[in-house]
Design brief:
The complex is a heterodimer of chains A (122) and B (805).
Chain A (H helix, E strand, L loop, with lengths): L1 H10 L1 H20 L2 H6 L17 H46 L6 H12 L1
Helix pairs in contact in A: 1-2, 2-4
Chain B lengths: L10 H12 L2 H24 L4 H8 L1 H14 L12 H4 L2 H4 L8 H8 L3 H10 L3 H7 L7 H15 L6 H10 L4 H7 L4 H22 L17 H6 E3 H4 L10 H15 L5 E5 L6 H13 L13 E5 L1 H7 L3 H18 L2 E5 L6 E4 L2 E3 L1 H10 L3 E6 L1 H10 L1 H5 L3 E3 L5 H19 L2 E2 L1 H14 L7 H10 L8 E2 L1 H12 L9 H8 L1 H6 L6 H15 L10 E6 L6 H11 L7 E5 L9 H5 L9 H7 L4 E5 L6 H13 L1 E3 L5 E3 L4 E6 L3 H9 L4 H14 L5 H4 L4 E4 L5 H19 L5 E4 L1 H11 L7 H21 L7 E4 L1 H12 L1
Parallel strand pairs in B: 2-7, 2-8, 3-4, 4-7, 9-10, 11-16, 11-17, 12-13, 13-16, 18-19
Antiparallel strand pairs in B: 1-3, 5-6, 14-15
Helix pairs in contact in B: 2-3, 2-4, 7-9, 7-11, 8-11, 10-11, 11-13, 16-17, 24-25, 24-26, 25-26, 37-38, 37-39, 38-39, 38-40, 39-40
The chains are: A mainly alpha (122), B alpha/beta (805).
Chain lengths: 122, 805
């Protein structure tokens, strides 16, 4: 009875839970690398190093504008790099999760599968 | 019992039994070990012996691993079955279900739950002994259905997902025969057990929430916002410090305040909120809870507030850094500019009055804040009490006009208990103790009564913090621990009379008082009865312990009884707070009566707020101004006097005694005419009312009106003995004693007796005779250590003669 219960859980709720955990892990990676927030603020000045309107001559204003663009450019580069790392992390996580999801239903039968593979090879 | 309710052989019950087995670490270790051995053998065969079949052996190790995975993700916390009619095998938690026998009785249930976390929770928090339930629960299987039905109701009420050990325990306790009496011994009622179940379910919920992954924005969260080096120096990042656990209870009052502040800070208007409420009402905690919600946002959090950080500005470090006022303003301006530029900062000014008035450790930044508040660009939260807010409204109305007030009100009892349960998680961790439920109830009761400088829940929290030092050897903080904390802090006795010594003292109060008072038996008895009622816990708790009006001529023992009470009951004559009301004969003297300690430490309000457990002696009450009397009426009625700041000072642990000489001559006339006290007492009081000396509504406020009669010469002789005993007590320090001959005593009494002035002249005569004689002999060196000075009639004759002249 319990044997059947184990298999029943393995191929229904257990498998579904594995999928849910995979999704949570992916969400965790996205949160850790702040992917969503970095995408939204991709071209925002980095750390607000230059901010607000500047009073002064045209050359001062032009220099402030230039500073801001540099800050934006640096910000965009840093953010893109981190987003890239995040996406690589998500990709790895996806591959691992898909692998686990594929392997999961095979686990109970794994000794038999391996047995036949080994016999076949011999 | 009904077979439909429990099926021992159901699949869920079997799973639960396996779960119980696997919950034992050795078994899990054995299963895991088996997997490891198979993996190891497989690896050895493949690598060591180059046998491909080793892979098959290794893969066999996956089967025991499957069992462990199954346990972790299903068996350990079995979900309830979906059923139209809840059954035990479908709804019980795995830990209980897996331990049930074929035919469970309430006693079986009791045995099981007392060994599980839910049961141990009640053992530790409520003092319910492990054998308490087991011995008293029914052994009949048929009665299990009743317990089960109640358990299901309780689960629905408290929102648990399964019927767990704590729920069953509650149902069992409710159904015990004579449960009310049994719980009463633990100072508990059925409702308390029900509250305990709610508490347990809440802890489970908090633990579960805490285990869930927190999403706090990640590494790039703050990259679009500015650096804050100045803030890091002069402020505390509240958002960094909160890591869950702040206000996990959703109280209506708190939710309202939090949503109001959130609305103000996220809206388009002036983005500030001033939290106004008494100290201890939870203003700072609410700001911390807000910070936690913003840094760990949910779908309800407005988009423009997500991941915003709350920084609490530190006035002391700002003042320490700046050399002059101008520099300070510049510094604060820079901090505010930085916060504005960073775009993700909410500034919090806790105790905002420190930023709005000049003084030691405080500075008036009103001029600086005014344009910031007006502009509304910088998000700002302030906290202050009602009085400061009113003061600010008067002194700087322009500033308050720009502020958005949010009122934080003190919590009621039920909500306070819930907040305490919340805060205990942190307090227990800090103090390494466990608080019992009774300690929370007691902290509320005593906090409400004795902690005057803050409001609920702060009052109770401060007592619980102190009570941790009075935990028992097992680290349990009980109601007695809280009582001890109050006794230590406030010097009051709040526990019921438990000690054998104290019980003996209370039962023999009259005798103890008469050791220092002669006669006046009725007065002594009335007062003693009042004290016994108080210590036995049967008095009205909302009034003073006792209120008495002592009427009688001077020198008959009115003040002496008050002193005796202070000494015998409260432990010392210094517990007597004496007010001569002839000094309160002007209408504006009320202000002196109710002045707070900061203005007049000798006022009645100040003295009692320092020492609530006192005898208050209101001497010559008939001479007080009617305004003063009206103020005292409230004290007599409600046991509360409001001080000049409208703070309630409790007189509920005081004995209030008013004395008056009014009608002294009339008492003497009655006594001279041969009347006994009991015969004329009522008539005499009526005469006082008829003559307009006292209003009936005033006299009615007292528990007892006690008439003292003049002392006769025999009684004065006994008073003389008491005085001499007092002198001997003083002399004992110098290893000497005095003995006065009987004829000398009689002569002194005769000389000192004055029907109008009672025993007072005699005390003076004793001073002038015995004490003077002793002083002279001691200075002359004629009193050797260990000797007794004999004083005869001849020695005191001179003094007596001069007194007669």
């Amino acid at each position: 009875m319990l044997f059947i219960a184990l298999f029943s859980w393995w191929y229904t709720a257990g498998w579904a839970q594995l999928g849910e955990r995979a999704l949570k892990r992916i969400a965790g990676v996205l949160d850790f690398f702040s992917v969503g927030m970095l995408l939204k603020s991709l071209f925002a000045p980095f750390r607000q190093i230059s901010v607000g309107s500047v009073q002064g001559s045209l050359s001062v204003k032009l220099r402030a504008w230039g500073d801001k663009q540099i800050s934006r450019a640096i910000g965009a580069m840093v953010r893109l790099a981190v987003i890239l790392f995040g996406l690589i992390g998500v990709l790895i996580m996806c591959l691992v999760s898909v692998g686990l999801l594929v392997l999961w239903p095979l686990v109970p039968a794994m000794p038999f599968i391996v047995f036949f593979v080994v016999i076949g090879m011999q | 019992m009904n077979q439909g309710v429990f099926d021992y052989n159901s699949l869920r019950a079997q799973k639960a039994r396996l779960s119980v087995q696997l919950s034992k670490a050795p078994l899990r270790l054995a299963v895991g070990g088996a997997a490891g051995v198979l993996f190891g053998i497989g690896a050895l065969l493949v690598i060591g012996l180059a046998m491909p079949m080793g892979v098959v052996v290794a893969s066999l190790g996956l089967w025991p691993m499957m069992v462990l995975v199954w346990y972790k993700y299903e068996l350990r916390d079995l979900s309830p079955a979906k059923e139209a009619t809840p059954t035990m095998h479908g709804q019980l938690s795995a830990e209980v279900l897996g331990r049930l026998p074929l035919q469970p009785t309430p006693q079986h249930l009791a045995e099981i739950v007392m060994g599980l976390n839910g049961g141990l929770f009640f053992v530790a928090r409520f003092g319910i002994g492990p054998n308490f339930l087991t011995e008293l629960s029914s052994q009949l299987p048929d009665t299990t259905l009743e317990i089960w039905t109640r358990s299901v109701e309780l689960r629905q009420k408290h929102g648990g997902d399964v019927v767990d050990a704590a729920t069953i325990l509650t149902a069992l306790v409710e159904r015990l025969p004579g449960t009310d009496q049994l719980l009463a011994r633990l100072q508990l009622g059925i409702d308390d057990i029900d509250n305990g179940l709610g508490w347990y379910q809440h802890i489970k919920h908090v633990v579960k929430t805490h285990q869930a992954r927190r999403q706090t924005g990640g590494i790039g969260r703050d990259w679009a916002f500015g650096y804050t080096p100045m803030l890091s120096r002069f402020a505390l990042n509240v958002s960094d410090g909160v890591a869950g656990g702040m206000l996990t209870r959703d109280l209506e009052g708190h939710q309202e305040v939090l949503s109001q502040v959130t609305r103000l800070l996220s809206g388009g208007g002036r983005q500030n909120a001033v939290m106004v409420g008494p100290t201890g009402a939870g203003k700072t905690t609410l700001v911390y809870a807000l910070a936690e919600r913003l840094i760990n946002p949910t779908g309800m959090t407005p988009q423009n507030l997500r991941y915003r950080q709350v920084w609490s500005l530190d006035p002391a470090s700002l003042i320490a850094q700046a050399r002059g006022r101008g520099e300070l303003e510049q510094l604060v301006q820079s901090v505010f500019n930085e916060a504005y530029r960073a775009k993700n900062i909410i500034i919090f000014l806790d105790e905002a009055q420190l930023f709005l008035q000049d003084g030691t450790g405080s500075v008036d930044l009103s001029n600086l804040l005014l344009p910031i508040l007006d502009g509304g660009a910088l998000r700002l939260i302030m906290a202050m009490d009602e009085q400061r807010w009113l003061q600010l409204s008067q002194t700087n109305p322009a500033l308050t006009q720009y502020m958005n007030r949010v009122t934080v009100t003190p919590l009621g009892k039920d909500d306070t208990l819930l907040v305490l349960q919340d805060q205990l998680l942190i307090m227990e961790f800090k103090n390494k103790v466990t608080y019992m439920y009774q300690s929370l109830e007691e902290a509320y009761r005593l906090g409400d009564r004795y902690v005057q400088d803050r409001a609920m829940p702060g009052q109770a929290i401060s007592l619980l913090e102190s009570a941790a030092q009075h935990s028992n050897e097992n680290g349990l903080v009980s109601a007695e621990s809280v009582q001890k904390a109050v006794e230590k802090i406030y010097g009051v006795r709040v526990g019921n009379a438990n000690g054998a010594d104290e019980r003996t003292k209370l039962l023999n109060l009259e005798q103890l008082i008469h050791e220092r008072m002669i006669n006046q038996t009725r007065a002594v008895q009335v007062v003693s009865n009042a004290l016994r009622r108080a210590r036995a816990g049967v008095r009205n708790q909302e009034r003073p312990i006792g209120t008495f009006m002592f009427l009688g001529p001077t020198g008959v023992g009115k003040t002496e009884l008050s002193k005796a009470l202070a000494s015998v009951y409260f432990g010392g004559e210094d517990r007597l707070v004496r007010l001569d009301l002839n000094e309160y004969s002007q209408p504006n003297d009320v202000a002196r009566l109710i002045a707070d300690a900061a203005h007049d430490s000798g006022s009645l309000a100040a003295q009692i707020s320092r020492q609530p457990f006192s005898v208050v002696l209101l001497d010559e009450i008939e001479k007080a101004h009617p305004n003063v009397l009206n103020t005292l009426l409230q004290l007599l009625d409600e046991g509360v006097l409001r001080d000049i700041n409208n703070r309630a000072v409790s007189f509920k642990d005081a004995i209030v005694i008013a004395t008056s000489n009014a009608g002294a001559d009339r008492i003497r006339q009655y006594i001279d005419a041969g009347w006994k006290l009991e015969q004329f007492e009522e008539r005499f009081v009526n005469e006082l009312i008829d003559s307009g000396q006292f209003k009936p509504e005033f006299l009615n406020r007292f528990d007892e009106i006690v008439v003292f009669r003049p002392l006769n010469q025999d009684e004065l002789l006994q008073v003389m003995d008491l005085i001499i005993a007092g002198i001997n007590k003083t002399l004992s320090l110098q290893k000497a004693a005095v003995h006065v001959a009987d004829d000398a005593k009689k002569a002194l009494v005769a000389a000192g007796y004055d029907p109008r002035l009672g025993a007072r002249p005699m005390r003076r005569i004793v001073q002038r005779s015995i004490e003077d004689i002793l002083a002279k002999r001691m200075l002359a060196g004629t009193v050797a250590p260990g000797s007794t000075v004999e004083i005869g009639l001849a020695d005191v004759q001179d003094v007596i003669d001069s007194a007669r002249k």
